[in-house]
Amino acid sequence: MASNITWHAGSVSLTERQDLLKQKGLTIWFTGLSASGKSTLATALEQTLLHAGIISYRLDGDNIRFGLNKNLGFGPDDRTENIRRISEVAKLFADSTVIAITAFISPYRQDRDTARQLHQEAGIPFVEVFADAPLEVVEQRDPKGLYKKAKAGEIKEFTGISAPYEAPEKPEIHIRTDQVSVEEGVKAVIKYLVDQGYIAADKIKQ
Amino acid sequence: MASNITWHAGSVSLTERQDLLKQKGLTIWFTGLSASGKSTLATALEQTLLHAGIISYRLDGDNIRFGLNKNLGFGPDDRTENIRRISEVAKLFADSTVIAITAFISPYRQDRDTARQLHQEAGIPFVEVFADAPLEVVEQRDPKGLYKKAKAGEIKEFTGISAPYEAPEKPEIHIRTDQVSVEEGVKAVIKYLVDQGYIAADKIKQ
């Protein structure tokens, strides 16, 4: 029997895990209208962290809607269940010491607050980032022609057109994506993470 | 604009992520009867990996049934949905380069095969570990008195008593938990991971 196998009964605590891996997890929750720049910012942030050797993982429509949440539609109940599952998975990632990054419209304040509460109860930081651009700007961008279709009534319950978007009242970070570059947006998030002590200043250039 | 922020459009590929973080993810899927020793083995394996500085994360009843899957019951459809969601989440963890460890009875061969296929399609290794102890042994152990209750008809559809357990036909690893110690079981898994090149031999003592 090898003496080098170390274990004790029960789960590894959050702080024990953080000490062993020398890193802390948290969830960075992007919210904003379609075409507000959430995914672009989230992608750039994830890459920046990975290039600094910091494990991070992005949950977005591509890997969630066609996987975990493929059995959900777009009605109100399914939208809430969509965000609930994403919140739970982000929390698991953050608990594992990964920096989880979510990029979903997540239009309802209550759903985002539930996500925040879930993290707070587990002692895991939750950072809400508002990717904010005025409706006229995102309608102008409209890379997939979705706003056009929504206005023509071809898409029902489209956030900002025929369904509400409840803007965050006190997000940890507010990025006006029509006023700053992607690089500046990412820098603002990184600065926040360093200032809060979530990532070590010497791990990443600011 | 900082030149040190590096990013490109689109997602980071699996191999790029593995190169940046110098680690590879995979899923280690424990299956076996209640009280077969799945959770004990999974816990000891997770701790051994963490103590070697290798990020791993265990999905089990405690963090899944009361979180992500708290809206599922124990009927056939809900059992399948339970395992489906766990498969999807394990795959996400493995995709992020974490070693995901799942510890659920997962009695149906088809559900486990679906989990395997999901991983294979994503190019992520899937290691099925059969925590195997004869029914008479687990009935004897019965730490929570569940077998007793099941036999008395107080619990319906209990795996091994009133619901089937379909043993793996070709698991990557087969551990007779009534014949080997926890340490020996963990060593067998670690040896497999090293032999397959999933973790570096110099990272962990065998």
Automatic annotation (TrEMBL), chains A, B:
Instruction: Name the EC number(s).
Output: 2.7.1.25
Q: Which SUPFAM superfamilies match?
A: P-loop containing nucleoside triphosphate hydrolases
Please give the catalytic activity noted in the UniProt record.
adenosine 5'-phosphosulfate + ATP = 3'-phosphoadenylyl sulfate + ADP + H(+)
| CDD domains from the UniProt entry | APSK
- Which stretches make up the APS kinase domain? 24-176
What metabolic or biological pathway is this protein involved in? Sulfur metabolism; hydrogen sulfide biosynthesis; sulfite from sulfate: step 2/3
Provide any one GO MF term from the record: ATP binding
One example of a Gene Ontology biological process annotation: cysteine biosynthetic process
Q: Which UniProt keywords apply?
A: Amino-acid biosynthesis, ATP-binding, Cysteine biosynthesis, Kinase, Nucleotide-binding, Transferase
Is-annotated flag, keyword Amino-acid biosynthesis?
yes
What Pfam families does this protein map onto? APS_kinase
| Stored InterPro entries | APS, APS_kinase_dom, P-loop_NTPase
What the protein does? Catalyzes the synthesis of activated sulfate.
The UniProt entry, under HAMAP family, shows: Adenylyl_sulf_kinase (MF_00065)
Q: Which family does it belong to?
A: Belongs to the APS kinase family.
Q: What protein am I looking at?
A: Adenylyl-sulfate kinase
Origin organism is Absidia glauca
Its organism's taxonomic lineage begins at: Eukaryota, Fungi, Fungi incertae sedis, Mucoromycota, Mucoromycotina
